[in-house]
Design goal:
The protein has a five-stranded parallel β-sheet, with helices on both faces. The protein is α/β, with parallel strands linked by helices. It is 37% helix and 11% strand. It is built from eight helices and five strands; from the N terminus they run βαβαβααβααβαα.
């Protein structure tokens, strides 16, 4: 197939995915942003994704509807309490209950399907293996395994017309480095949302793992945190 300059970018509305999208655009890709309404406990992040996609200039932005809450197993898809106020060492001890079973595998599979329809081999995901909460589907070995599977699972791959590339431009960066990179590319982080348990009005709780990592990142980057906390 004739290669295009299109790329599918997984866009959650959070800090990392917004930065990954900005990097894709800076690399010259025409961005087709993909978000998910997956039965998560709030829609604040989806509203943020819409704003980010528009502000950065996505060619199009689609929201796929799936329901991972029918399986549960995560504080993000059930009414289980979200952990608050944890120290960094506690975040590293075990995979937290905010991990959503198989989420990145499902999201990347949707992205793979759309990429094949768009006739592109490029997919971007903002996973990070440095300042993160220990999720197994954010590790380099996971991305390598999914890439190998993707090239075995698609018509274009089997026919040798393309070779899927999963771009992970943030995987080896600290949160501070991610923020600095995004600032250099014009990302407006006030549009993004990272909190696992926002208030009814959409303000970040300031105490969940994601909020604490976000706060730490802005502090270490020497950049004012534009987040509205409860």
């Amino acid at each position: 197939m004739k290669e295009t300059n299109k790329a599918v970018v997984l866009l959650s509305g959070g800090l990392d995915s917004a930065t990954a999208m900005a990097i894709a655009l800076d690399m010259g890709f025409e961005v087709h942003a993909l978000s998910f309404s997956y039965g998560q406990r709030h829609t604040t992040e989806l509203e943020a994704a819409k704003k980010v996609a528009k502000a950065l200039g996505a060619q199009e932005h689609r929201i796929a509807n799936i329901d991972l809450s029918s399986f549960g197993g995560s504080a993000l898809t059930t009414d289980m309490a979200v952990p608050k106020g944890r120290a960094p060492r506690d975040m590293e001890k075990e995979i937290p209950i905010t991990y959503v079973p198989a989420r990145n595998t499902i999201f990347l599979s949707f992205a793979l399907a759309w990429a094949e329809v768009l006739e592109t081999s490029h997919i971007f995901i903002g996973v990070n293996a440095v300042d993160y909460s220990g999720y197994p589907d954010c590790r380099p070995e996971y991305i390598r395994a999914f890439t190998a599977m993707a090239n075995l699972a698609t018509k274009a791959g089997v026919e040798g017309r393309t070779s899927i590339v999963i771009h992970t431009p943030l995987i080896d960066l600290t949160k501070a480095q991610i923020i600095q990179k995004g600032i250099s590319l014009g990302v407006d982080y006030s549009l993004t949302h990272s909190c696992y348990d926002p208030s009814p009005r959409g303000k970040a709780c300031g105490q969940c793992d994601s909020c604490l990592l976000r706060k730490k990142g802005f502090a270490q980057a020497g950049v004012a945190d534009p987040t509205q906390y409860s």
